[in-house]
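Re: the pair you flagged

First of the two:
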Amino acid sequence: MKKLFAYSFLASSILFGGYSAKADWDFWAVNYSGDPSVGNRIYTCVSETSTCTLRSTKVFQDNAWQPQNSYVNDDNELVIYGSGGNLHSYNLETNTWTDKGAGWTGDYQKVFERPDIVKNSDGSVTIGQGDSVIGIDNEGIEQGGEDLLKKKSNGEIHIGKNSWITKEENGRQKVWAKDAAGNSIPIDYTNGTKLLINGRDVEQSINNVGALSAALTGLPTVPTDTTLACGFGTGTHGGDFAFSGGCASRVNDKLSINYAASMTMPGQDYAGDFEDTFSARAGFVWKLGKSTKPTQISMKAKEKMEAKIGTLTQKNEKLQNTVSTLMARLERLEKIASRDIKSQDLVSIKD
């Protein structure tokens, strides 16, 4: 943070409080000495342990400087305001001093830098200047008038202008999103990001369920013309594959049982434990009520029946021909017999 400093006189010591990205110290400290042979001692200090490390000694012009006009600049350099408005900056990284001269500040009795952090009358805080200013109030953080992170009075937490929103309500943590107009919009995990629940890839789990179910449908459930039927199957959904195996058994005319299991392809990322990649089923079919014969026949039985009918038809035709022949012979015999009887009657009358 730019030019944040505090100072106080205590036992001829003055502390300059500044922000530092370093983790090993958090304050500049200066011991002023009026003796030019001693100079001024520059320290870095750790406030939590009250330990300070001597970094440099410096004798300023006329050994005079103004602590009220000294500060820490953007580069975390300690800037000493010396006599005559001369500025002296100290860089800790290079352990060097730069005398910048009086510059324009020498024309004024005092020079005050506008702070980057300002506390406003309403209790809010602004950081920075211009269009990039960041505001902090009791609801959260905004930049350029647009929300960055806000907690509304109704408990909603908003992240970003087009907000990702979360809220704890009735023992559940609700999550949704809105656009700049306040309309609800989908939350889309893209660019290869996977949505995990308890370490499992949600999209992959959905695809696995579809593949496992599809694989199970390819297995027998009730055998028809045998007492036992077994098989293997496979299924796919969303690019994931599964394999299955199972059997079906007919115990008697009334009861049949079936059992099967399927498993996804091994080597999937975020697939979970074994029970998350395995699916199984078992069931039975118990016929109730009076058993009825099927009204439909198989193609093989139909062909046999048609062959028999054809044979019987041929035999019937032969039989009919035989009967016709016999009937014709019988008619001729009847005619012959009839003529013989007439001849005998005529003979008896003539006598």
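Second of the two:
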Amino acid sequence: MIRDYWPRYRRYSVSLTILMQVGATLAIGLALIVAGVAIPTPQFWITLIAIFATCAGLNVILVTQLSTPLKDLTSAITHISGEPNNIAPPNPNARHFERDGFKPILQLIYELASDKSDDQDTPTPKVGPAADFATALNNTSAGFIIMDAKQNIVYANSKAPVHTTPEGRQVIDLIFDDDTTLENWLKDCEENAVHADRSWLRVANKITGEEDRKIYDITASYEKGSKAEVVITLLERTTDYQPEDDDLDFIAFAAHELRGPITVIRGYLDVLSDELESKLEDDQRELLSRLVVSANRLSSYVNNILNASRYDRRHLKVRLREDSVADIYAIISDDMQLRASSQNRMLTVAIPDSLPTVAADRGSISEVLSNLIDNAVKYSNEGGMVYVSAATDGDFVKVSVKDRGIGMPSSVVSNLFHKFYRSHRSRETVAGTGIGLYICKAIVESHGGRIGVRSAEGEGSTFEFTLPIYSTVADKLTADQGSNQSLIEHDESGWIKNHAMYRG
């Protein structure tokens, strides 16, 4: 393969350099002895070997530096040839390429490869003039956007979610729910790829509740050096996805109706606790205390369902206070152990008391922990172990929930935090609505943290989420009287309208 050329050439050039240095050193040594300048004593040979080692090392370094352009050329050609390769292609925009003048050569290679690919793979449209072709694209139900090498929009058909700013610049109206936005993906492609493709599901152009909201499945293709460097295809699927948004609104309505009865139950429990305090036995008092705690948790869960519906509208609000992860877990510890033992699972918890305090809403984060542990228990094997741990991670505390259960394929993992998403297998074997992880994501991101999962089919899954260390956000929370609004940033700069969460 082409990729094998550079290692072979490097071994050959280094070996040849060392052999040449051996020959030169021996020739010099023999010449000195024959001329009577030096006597072949041990000190003479040691000195000669030292000179050889020094010169050989310097020559190897010199040869390696001088052959670096050949290495970069080989890497670029390997990537445009389509051979599998785990080394990032040379980026012509790197500063050292601009300094040594190698940038135009790399750009020309990428452009020639792109032009050749366009000539071979792209059939000539049979619709006549370009104007007719544009008309045909406007008559399709899909949106098409083409961007040049500077990521300027050079074409967008009538179905594409694009608007023009007062300054005359075209902007894509898309709201991504995670860190892998189109803009971030393109930045990564510029640095590490020659050709790449990426898809996103359920990307809306407006937040829930706004008029004329549309939801798309998106595919983007990147080809470095091409005149049409980025091609984005958008398939509108509002009629497929909108009913699920309506379902969440219905669940929110039901949760709202439940708040009244739950409030009454909590009130009666408080009255009973006060009135019967002196008459209850210890076990009865403990039972009543657990009822109060469960009622309060139920009230918190109802509030979080309501918050999840607000999350779609980008204004989920929680009150954050200084708290510890260990204390938060303590309020659900008994329930989690009971849940695990009833399913014949082992639950191991390692949350050090020495961890820094975090900024958290206790009820909400306890729901996240409860949901993740409950999932780990459900998807573990009979007699399996579930591990809960926490550790410092920069300005955050990272909490992990790990199981060694059935695991998930990558096709499931990529959609896991979408609301109402359930894989075909889990729908058949495990009860649920598919909203739990979506609510977890809403809660964690409303705290300024992140949630994610690593999983391998047949090996188990690890869910992780982060919470900001309180000292890193204390000033912001104090200024906002505990509100989380300062931890959520809306960024509409650039060519894409991206609603992203603030990290720390």
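DSSP finds 16 helices and 15 strands in the chain.

-B.
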